Each structure stands twice: as C-alpha cells, then as structure tokens.
Amino acid sequence: MPGFALTTSQKPRVIVGISGASGFSYGVQALRYLRQLDVETHLVISPAGHLNREHETTLTEADVTDLADVVYPFHAVGSAIASGSFKTLGMLVAPCSMHTLAAVANGMTDNLLTRAADVILKERRRLVMMVRETPLHAGHLRNMQQVTECGGIIFPPVPALYARPTSVEEIIAHSVARALSLLDLDCSDLPRWGENMKLMTKGENA
Asked: Which terminus of the chain faces fewer neighbouring Cβ atoms within 10 Å, N or C?
C-alpha cells in the first residue's frame, strides 16, 4: 500500500474574511500581523467590504490584496478555502457584519466568505468573528448564540482602555492581536494584564 508523507515545511494558514461592517482597518491590521508572524494568509473581501474601504481608508484595493498571500473573488465558491480538505488554523472575519453573521449562523453559503466560515465550523476549526453593530436586537443576539453553539467565537472589538491607547491605530491593533490570540497566534506587542502591565493593588480602584 502507498504510504502518506506528512509535510512539515508548510507554513500555518489562516483565512481572513473582510465583510461590510464598519471597521475595515481591523482586517488590514490582521493581514499585517499575520505577515509579521509568517502565517500564510488567504483573503476574501465582500463587495460591501470594499465599499467601506473606500469610505473609511485611503487604501486602494491593491494596497490591501498585496498584504495577502492568496486572494479569492467573493463568489468563487469552488476555491480551495471552500473545502474542508484544505488545512488551516482557522478563520478570522474582521470586521463581521450582521449580514455575514446571520448567513453563517443559518448555514447560508452562497458566497465564498460564508462558505469558508461554514467549512471552518464543520471541520471543528477555530472561527473568530469580530462582529460590529450596536445596539443589538434579539435577532442579532440569537445569531451570535447560534454561531457560538456551532463552535464559533464572537469577538466584538471592544477597546481595552486599561492599555491606555493613545491613538485609534493602537485600539485597532490591540483588538486584532487579542482576536488572533484565539487562533493561538501570539503578537508580541500585545499588552497583557498581569504580565507586562501593572496590576492594581488593593485600594487603587476604590
């Protein structure tokens, strides 16, 4: 019988989805961090994501896609990341719109972003969704619960003010670093409470 060879030289892979919620820069920062970590990135951006890129940043499409190793068209549902046999560490959706959340929660896989997320869940890999919306109605909350019950992680990019950020860029970077840590990827400049940050002593928060 033929044997099977295990490839040890393959870089770890992460899928990055950028959907149409406000916060396009979260996805961009994720691509930058993943490049620093020498992780192979597979990127898919929704049309609404590109619309937010134009409204929120001065980046061109090429500026963003140049940060990724592989870029896929939004509707290319036959692509590698649409198959469970394509091994990855997991997927980060940054930012994640309520439309994308609802599609993933209900198994709607008519585009590559939601298909890739559905594959991650069925293969029991890590799906981290940086959901962006407020206030939330009951339907949003039910969709978050459904994704969580399927094994996904809902990670709203809430500012960590204890890190005393001095710019919007620092706020974004901290949230993205925390999200990537859920994929077991360590960004060295992430401030960690009790490690490289001073703990409050008794009475300081009185």
From this structure: N
